Task: inverse folding
């Protein structure tokens, strides 16, 4: 395609007031949809499908892209302020974001997460614009065993999230995996841990678990010092200093690549990207400004960058192959069908404008994200200053409605409240809830792909293991895991000491 | 005094309104309907429903408020709708899955408990393979599978799904077995086929057709007994192997149901509205793009189709050893 | 010596309970039919159940001296003020009541009662203010979810 033509499509959304407005409205709405737990971008976009049925494709798409960009970012708001991830992709944001709010730095944290999101988002768009064909070919290379290795890599994060005791972290992580297995096994149709109930056949929705374990349990912990005054939030400075940004630019860029890469994989989405990026930050940043888990800026930057970079990544298989990269792209593909387009590898040949038009809209959405994300922060931050006696019941009601909204099911409400109480007990006795949710998110990825790889090798354990090192891509992932494990345990320092000692003795 | 007057006015107003609605009670519907979708947002069922509903609403004169209640391959939704009153205000938007609930021991319900308002469309399966696979025709694949039983990697979507059932047909007619690797849906399975992680798969036309057009997968046969417009150059499975005729037409289907004991006038009104909605040229264009075959069946015609579908699928699953309860127990006849 | 030990009264009880739960999980996992090979439905559940049992045993063993610092009677007595102070027990009771009543009473009435009750119990607002604040909260939620997002609340 000629550059002039591409440029024309690219600026389409910027020069048309209508399209510009669509992206703006979408982004703003997305931020709030994302911030409210239980309301998801997937839901919003699918409602829009009927709503925009009679529209042209361009404004409909502009609106959807705006909502998506805003929604992925919006999840961080509630994560930081209330410790309730508004969306699964914001789970990792809360690990260090919520402690920052507790220190009275909610405004600062939101400013930083906005900036990180926008930078990540823009890098994602750039990757989409210039490397889409290469990235989509690479994403096809991932076999089930590679997804399995990816899940293992993510689950290793349990090591850094377990708090006081590794054994407790392992228990919590395994508990999460167990929860993810409840329901019908989609390999065989066999019910597992269902005790014959149709309600349990569909499993326990992980968003219900997430809202309960994070939001409600934290509300119960807060009851202990209910009379204490809420911390005063410092809202004097929202935009992070340039120095801080530049200092972490390397981390931001690395995490953007993680986001784009994971986003482009059809079997993994923003939640997994954010967790892997968080894990990467914990391992690679040796001297964070505050300890991880206690409000480290690095721990906030990494997942926020990655989950927004994921958007560009997820768009790649969707536009080039017609394959959804995550739940949102699945709905957008549906929208494309309904608007008379044919998603698939021919999409960009049949409707050439779509590619650069999408790129333009996404870039624009990121600009609006920066504007909307940095305004109104003061009001948000002040929200947490509301008296606890008022705030906590309201949090619980929002959590209730939010968990009902996931599947329109009252069972999810019961689960959510049940996990709230259970999570409270776990927290009181030194268990962290982070590993539980890690297990819930990564469990299916790990189990399903392990089983696929096993079936592939006719259930031969040796065949399975050799697959992990024979294929170059798998080998790289396996090595990554080995290095992580070695680096995380005392083994490495013990080796170093020993080698050093023997050298000395040799002299 | 003024307060009294206001109150009186309100009471009179309320009375008039209620009278009005009483008169209207003859004409179903008097309030918005609720549409329960048994699969989640973004699935094929969801796509068809969300395209169809705006076409139907004008003919009903009321809105249909759509809700996704996914879970247990749709059993959560069927259970929910059964628990609602039989007044025709709760529609079940569904796919083929309930017809297998009894033999898979998921739920005692299936479409015998529902009245088919409209079976809108059905999908057609396309047997396709990775472009690097050695097979040029379906016969090549079958010959190879005979030589290497259980070794050729086939993409699947779990028991009862399209690839699984087509695999079961091959087992029943030719005794072929494959190494079936299950994926959570057609998209991931297709991805694995593109990447060569599985060698062949039966995919829906919706997704498959575009990849065929781009030359990224090689079509071997259509699982259909009559040609699909626009795809005449792909051979039908029955032209090579006529013995598959007894299973066809077979494929996923999408439609709308209400409870069996809904009053006749409501059923009639719904059937009419959906007939008109489906015939809307805009929706027909969508169905064509979507790669589905329009059906627009209701009532007895639809029931006949449903029974045939159920008997074919249940017995294929039974023969493949995937059922938990034999279809015999429920009196489902052999095809 | 004794005062150095960070003791969370009740932890031992919780862990024994978690161990029992893990064993129950293992039994359930073993009962999943068709355990023929390493990719069966039951393989991964058994593996996870073993990890659960292993890690809970490990915690119990590692902290055995710490746990033994209290006898069971003392532990039960101390656990209540530590993990379940009056306000938490009271509020958990309100929550449970809400869980039980929300389906039969429907969303708006049950949530209204819950909000007003919570505000009063947690001293978040006076009796007079509780009613309008609860009504306002529910109005916002109702408009947002039911009207805009078409989530038909129960």
Result:
């Amino acid at each position: 395609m000629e550059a002039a033509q591409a440029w024309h499509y690219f600026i389409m959304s910027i020069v048309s007031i209508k399209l510009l407005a669509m992206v703006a409205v979408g982004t703003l709405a997305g931020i709030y949809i994302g911030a409210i737990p239980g309301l998801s971008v997937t839901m919003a976009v699918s409602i829009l499908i009927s709503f925009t049925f009679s529209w042209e494709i361009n404004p409909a798409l502009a609106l959807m892209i705006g909502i998506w960009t805003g929604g992925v970012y919006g999840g961080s708001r509630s994560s930081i302020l209330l410790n309730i991830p508004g969306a699964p992709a914001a789970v990792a944001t809360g690990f260090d974001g919520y402690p920052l709010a507790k220190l009275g730095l909610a405004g600062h944290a939101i400013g930083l997460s906005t900036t990180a999101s926008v930078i990540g988002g823009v890098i994602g768009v750039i990757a989409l614009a210039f490397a889409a064909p290469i990235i989509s070919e690479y994403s096809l290379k991932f076999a089930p065993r590679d997804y399995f290795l990816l899940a293992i890599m993510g689950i290793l994060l349990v090591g850094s999230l377990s708090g006081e005791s590794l054994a407790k972290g392992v228990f919590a992580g395994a508990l999460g995996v167990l929860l993810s297995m409840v329901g019908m096994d989609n390999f065989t149709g066999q019910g597992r841990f269902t005790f014959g109930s149709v309600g349990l056949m569909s499993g326990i929705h992980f968003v219900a678990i997430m809202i309960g374990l994070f939001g409600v349990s934290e509300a119960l912990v807060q009851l202990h010092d209910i009379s204490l005054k809420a911390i005063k939030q410092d809202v004097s400075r929202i935009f992070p200093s340039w120095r801080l940004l530049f200092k972490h630019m390397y981390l931001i860029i690395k995490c953007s690549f993680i986001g784009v890469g994971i986003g482009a994989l059809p079997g993994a989405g923003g939640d997994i990207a954010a967790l892997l990026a968080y894990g990467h930050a914990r391992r690679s940043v040796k001297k964070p400004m505050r300890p991880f888990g206690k409000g480290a800026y690095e721990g906030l930057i990494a997942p926020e960058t990655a989950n927004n970079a994921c958007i560009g990544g997820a768009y790649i298989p969707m536009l080039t192959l017609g394959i959804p990269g995550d739940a949102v792209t699945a709905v957008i593909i549906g929208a494309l069908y309904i608007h008379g387009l044919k998603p698939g590898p021919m999409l960009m040949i049949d409707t050439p404008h779509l590619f650069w038009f999408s790129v333009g809209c996404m870039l624009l959405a990121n600009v609006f994200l920066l504007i909307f994300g940095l305004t109104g922060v003061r009001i948000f931050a002040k929200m947490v200053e509301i008296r606890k006696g008022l705030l906590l019941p309201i949090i619980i009601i929002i959590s209730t409605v939010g968990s009902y909204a996931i599947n329109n099911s009252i069972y999810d409400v019961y689960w959510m409240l049940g996990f709230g109480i259970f999570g409270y007990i776990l927290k009181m006795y030194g268990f962290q809830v982070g590993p539980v949710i890690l297990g819930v998110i990564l469990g299916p990825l790990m189990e399903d792909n392990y089983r696929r790889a096993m079936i592939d090798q006719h259930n031969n354990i040796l065949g399975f293991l050799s697959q992990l090192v024979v294929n170059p891509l798998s080998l790289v992932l396996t090595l990554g895991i080995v290095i992580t494990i070695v680096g995380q345990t005392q083994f490495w320092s013990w080796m170093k000491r020993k080698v050093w000692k023997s050298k000395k003795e040799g002299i | 005094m003024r307060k009294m007057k206001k109150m009186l006015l309100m009471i009179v107003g309320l009375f008039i309104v209620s009278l009005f609605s009483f008169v209207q009670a003859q004409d179903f519907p008097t309030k918005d309907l609720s549409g329960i979708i048994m699969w989640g947002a973004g699935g094929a069922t969801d796509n068809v429903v969300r395209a169809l509903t705006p076409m139907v609403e004008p003919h009903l004169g009321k809105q249909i408020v759509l809700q996704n209640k996914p879970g247990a391959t749709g059993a959560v939704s069927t259970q929910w709708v059964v628990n609602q009153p039989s007044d025709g205000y709760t529609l079940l938007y569904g796919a083929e899955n309930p017809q297998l609930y009894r033999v898979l021991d998921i739920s005692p319900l299936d479409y015998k408990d529902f009245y088919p308002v409209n079976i809108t469309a059905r999908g057609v399966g396309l047997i396709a393979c990775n472009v690097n696979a050695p097979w040029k025709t379906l016969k090549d694949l079958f010959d190879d599978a005979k030589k290497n039983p259980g070794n050729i990697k086939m993409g699947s979507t779990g028991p009862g799904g399209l690839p699984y059932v087509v695999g079961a047909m091959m087992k029943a007619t030719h005794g072929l077995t494959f190494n079936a690797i299950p994926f959570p849906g057609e998209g991931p399975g297709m991805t694995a086929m593109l990447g060569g992680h599985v060698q062949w798969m039966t995919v829906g036309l919706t997704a498959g057709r575009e990849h065929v057009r781009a030359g990224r997968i090689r079509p071997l046969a259509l699982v259909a007994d009559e040609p699909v417009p626009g795809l005449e150059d792909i051979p039908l499975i029955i032209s090579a192997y006529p013995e598959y005729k007894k299973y066809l037409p077979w494929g996923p289907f999408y439609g709308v149901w209400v409870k069996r004991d809904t009053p006749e006038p409501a059923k009639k009104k719904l059937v009419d509205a959906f007939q008109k909605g489906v015939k809307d040229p805009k929706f027909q264009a969508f169905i064509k793009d979507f790669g589905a075959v329009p059906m627009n069946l209701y009532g007895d015609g639809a029931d006949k189709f449903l029974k045939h579908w159920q008997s074919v699928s249940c017995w294929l699953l039974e023969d493949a050893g995937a059922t938990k309860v034999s279809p015999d127990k429920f009196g489902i006849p052999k095809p | 010596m004794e005062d150095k030990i960070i003791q969370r009264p009740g932890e031992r009880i919780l862990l024994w309970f978690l161990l029992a739960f893990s064993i129950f999980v293992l039994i359930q996992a073993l009962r999943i039919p068709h355990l023929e090979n390493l990719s069966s439905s039951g393989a991964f559940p058994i593996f996870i159940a073993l990890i659960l049992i292993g890690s809970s045993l490990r915690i119990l063993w590692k902290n055995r001296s710490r746990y033994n610092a209290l006898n069971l009677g003392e532990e039960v007595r101390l656990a209540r003020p530590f993990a379940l102070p009056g306000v938490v027990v009271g509020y958990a009771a309100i929550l449970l009541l809400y869980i039980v009543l929300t389906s039969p009473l429907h969303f708006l009435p049950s949530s209204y009662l819950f909000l007003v009750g919570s505000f009063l119990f947690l001293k978040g607002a006076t009796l007079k203010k509780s009613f309008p604040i609860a009504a306002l909260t529910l109005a916002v939620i109702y408009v947002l979810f039911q009207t805009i997002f078409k989530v038909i609340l129960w």
